[in-house]
What we know:
Blueprint: H1 14-17, E1 26-31, H2 46-54, E2 73-75, H3 86-102, E3 106-111, H4 116-128, E4 132-136, H5 156-163, E5 166-171, H6 176-183, E6 190-193, H7 194-199, H8 203-210, E7 214-220, H9 242-255, E8 257-264, H10 274-293
Parallel strand pairs: 1-2, 1-3, 3-8, 4-5, 4-7, 5-6, 7-8
Helix pairs in contact: 2-10, 3-4, 4-5, 9-10
Bound molecules: manganese (II) ion (MN).
Amino acid sequence: MFNKNPYIVKYGGGDSSAVDLEKAKVVVVPVPYEGTVTYRQGTRNGPSAIIEASSNMELFDEELNVETHKMGIYTLPPIDLSNASPENMVSAVYKTVKDLMSGGKFPVVIGGEHTVSIGAIKAVKESVGEMSVLQLDAHSDLRNEYGGTKFNHACVGRRLQEIAPLTQVGIRSVSREDKEFLDGPNNITRVVSAYDILNDSLWDRKMQDALKDKVYITIDLDVFDVSIMPAVGTPEPGGLGWYLMLDILKLVVQSKEIVGFDVVELSPLDGNVAPDFLASKLIYRLLGYIFYGKSKKK
Ligand SMILES: [Mn+2]
């Protein structure tokens, strides 16, 4: 479907592709990597599907009443390392994001499988110092090793909490090893599960209290309910709806400084482009909240 010359189109389409790198505030980094997927394949097509969808999306944000792209969104050529080891891919993403951070850019990484976040988060952490990672995900992904590598997507949470304090929200799938890790004496990872969101009226307070002032957000699209986001490698029932997700993001943007984010694990479906558009609009809306939503409270 969306495989024809995908990167000629930039995120946001015509208008925002006119921006050059020097003038851009935000730089989109597509990483179509799929090296350790365990079930449904196709995340390598995620970035091109998101970018394609973005060129058919309204660039006027009807909630915020702004044209978010006007602050300058630049899309880099993809970091395409399909046959590389996860370690090599992680270090390539690290180098790119590190350069962007030293240039004062705000990084938005789009995957690809969830391991693409590791290098990005390491680079952002080194640049901004003390920060938290907010992981919106169905899965805890806290195994130390899976399929013979520490860089499997099932180990992402574990790697991330080695870089910065981790708070996971929307979790509804936990392995025995994940659980033992979470219950262990030295664990500082905080989990606000899908069940907490349903049953604990203080869940939002708990999420905010767990986060430091600076926050990097990593969004695994399987955090959404499968009814609106079926295009993921490992779907789990019982996920978040669109407006709940927006409320969570608004809450975090209002109370914290967001230092970067990524959106990963889109695995486009033949014959259903709705998930691609969801992912594209999610990125745009979150950029809107971060760059226009804070001062302009409606
Ligand atoms: Mn997941």
